[in-house]
Amino acid sequence: MGTLLWILVAIVLAVTPAMAEPPSMMTIVKQMKAVFEPSSPSTSKVIISSTSKVAGSERNERIQFLCGQARKMFPDGKRMLLVMLEPGSIRGNTYLFRERDKQPNFTLIYLPFIRRVRELLPVELYDRFLDTDFTYADLGFVRLHENYRLLGEENFAGVRAYKVEESFPHERSHYSRIIIWVAADSFLPLQREYYDTEGRPWKTERFKEVVTINNIPTPLLIQMKDRDGNSTELKVTEVQYDVKISDDLFDPNLLPKVVDSPIWNR
Amino acid sequence: MIIRNIAKGETQKEIPSPPKERRYTMSFMLAIMLAIVFAVTPAMSGSQKTLATSESPTGMTCMTNMKGALEPARSSMRRVVFSTTDDYGEKVRFIAGQAYKNVSDGNRMVLVILEPKSIRGMTYLFSERENRLDKWVYLPTIRRVLEVKPNQAYEPFLGTEFSVSDIGLVPIPKACELIEVVEHTGVKAYKVEEKVLGGPYYSRVITWIATDSFLPLQRDYYDEAGRLWKSELFKEVTTIDRVPTPLVMEMKDLQTGYVTVLRVTDVVNDTNIPDEFFDPKQLSKIADSPLWKTYSPQAVKGK
């Protein structure tokens, strides 16, 4: 009995520090990135719904866009494509997000009404995406840099979570900082809180309806609400992992043709 | 006089001293020559550069007068055609209606896209009040009116070489300097430099302003790295209802080679424009105003 007790105490003492010790800040961010942006090639459809006040009235109105999304890992980094499929007025607007090793990420945009592909300047990444509550940067890749800080661990909506702060150089962003709650078990983001350059809370982004598809946990609903009462949600559907996607789909020179790819009819 | 090579510690040469009276004469002559040089130098540099004199206006006066020349205190409407090329060298054209009004507390300007259909109704409002320039945009796709933040004003307007700021009311710079008075493309002009500190787009802008009309002749935009980025030419100045008006503005991106031409037609001055036109809450209705009827493709073809 005494021996058993001593063994139990020894086990508890041995395990406790390991349990209490959280992973390093960079490990958390890298894990979150790996889980949130799986390297397996994938396609999906995204329904973007935006709710805002009708201009000149107190009435709320909901507007919907449909877009196609494709992701693929290339030897020089990840690429992600978003193409507007509906409504007709913006059909063919195409956005290519590229991540490159040891180089800044960049985003290309193709607008059918001027039939030009151009690179967004870094400051433009913080503009509203289609004037919704998301910016291009919000939709792009998780940034890996030194300006993350682990604030601690806490219970977030019933889930044990790491609380991480990402800060930004003032002149380069419309945000001063983002607080991220990352699930300690799955490393998926649970919530991101965005603060404006004056340090005031601006927008809150929630990641919901996590479903495991092909062994990959995938949040199917992402909601962004701003302090003025406007909100936008991304509903992810028709997710397919490990699909064959031609490299051409991610070629900057071929962006005008992306909308007509049969890949969106699968 | 003995001259020593201090470094080597050697005596190099021995020069005999001139007589005392000759030394006084030489000093006197030297003083007179120096006085002449000092007196003449500023005048010479002024004439070489045609530098601004005390009679020249300041850089800020030049820019304020330029704004006054481009935005006279009279209401006006016009049709604006943007022409550029796509990635394949084919022509792309947008047609917009522009309304301008000078009200008691400042200027207002609205620009609404009438063609092509896919972006019809996109409307920009520029409002000046107590030295503050506010901008809004209405986007039919999402049916929201959004404020254009200061940095966003320098983003490409509809992907063209013009920025949102270029097509709106002329912003008065925080600081600028009159560099010189020069002849520019055969016209006597003030050359004014505006330094843009900490901006993510431009580091400085050089403007040549005609000394007689105060209309801009050219604006050169330099990027963050100080390289010449874009050059804007103001052409075909025509007097309409006693208002000299540049009818063509051409913006060339010298780094990509793209050019966008903005052509103004159908200018109507002293027209009655309702104040609601310049109300941010009413922007969604501007495209359907009967005031643009004369700018429809059918009406223009019939002219």
Compressed to H and E, one letter per element, the order of chain A equals HHEEEEEEHEEEEEEE
Radius of gyration of chain B: 28 Å
- Sheet-strand content of chain B, in percent, reads 35-45%
Number of strands of chain B: 15
Helix content of chain A: 10-25%
What features would you highlight for this structure?
heterodimer, A: 266 residues, mainly beta, 13-stranded antiparallel sheet, 3 helices, 13 strands, 13% helix, globular, B: 303 residues, alpha+beta, two-stranded antiparallel sheet, 15 strands
Fold and architecture overview:
The complex is a heterodimer of chains A (266) and B (303). Chain A is mainly beta and 266 residues long. Chain A is built from 3 helices and 13 strands; from the N terminus they run ααββββββαβββββββ. In chain A, a hairpin with a 7-residue loop joins strand 3 (77-86) and strand 4. The N and C termini of chain A lie far apart (65 Å). The model of chain A has no long low-confidence stretch (mean pLDDT 89). Chain B has 303 residues and is an alpha+beta fold. Chain B has a 13-stranded antiparallel β-sheet with strand order 8-7-6-5-4-3-15-14-13-12-11-10-9, with helices on one face. A two-stranded antiparallel ribbon of chain B has the order 1-2. In chain B, strand 10 (187-195) and strand 11 form a beta hairpin. Chains A and B meet through strand 2 and strand 6 of A and strand 8 of B.
